[in-house]
Amino acid sequence: MDRSPVITHLAWGEMEVEGLAPGKDFVLYPGGGKPWDWNEYGTRHDPGIRPEDVRQLMERGCTVVVLSRGMDRRLKTMPETLLVLREAGVAVHVEETREAVRLYNRLAGADEAVGGLFHSTC
Asked: Which of 42, 44, 47, 22 is nearest to 33 (CA)?
């Protein structure tokens, strides 16, 4: 199993992830990650993270998913998104971004098949 990359730096509007170019928002999974383009699935602060956003994590073999709420907790998660994860047997954690990063890094360091969606501003 590929290891999930560790987030090495987080500040307002900026993140650094091992093996990736610096950016603002990220989709991370075992073996890598990419910038999180909210326009890909029409994601907005409200109604929030969409089922399509997390399906890409499930397709990469994630058994645990960490969803960030933003630094000011403005990013919501659609109830349907949580349902998709739970029905697939994927453990899910929804946390403020700093806490989400701490939890994700701990799980990545424990070689869990962890993925996450990280929003580094509001």
From this structure: 22
Domain spans of the chain? 7-119
What is the spatial distance between Cα 68 and Cα 2, in angstroms, rounded to a whole number? 22
CATH class of domain segment(s) 7-119: alpha beta
Please give the Cα distance from 4 to 110 (Å, whole number): 10
Distance CA 112, CA 63 (A): 8
The pLDDT tens digits for 88-116 are 999 999 999 999 999 999 999 998 999 99
Contact call for residues 59 and 32 (beta carbons, < 8 A): no
DSSP 8-state code for residue 16: E
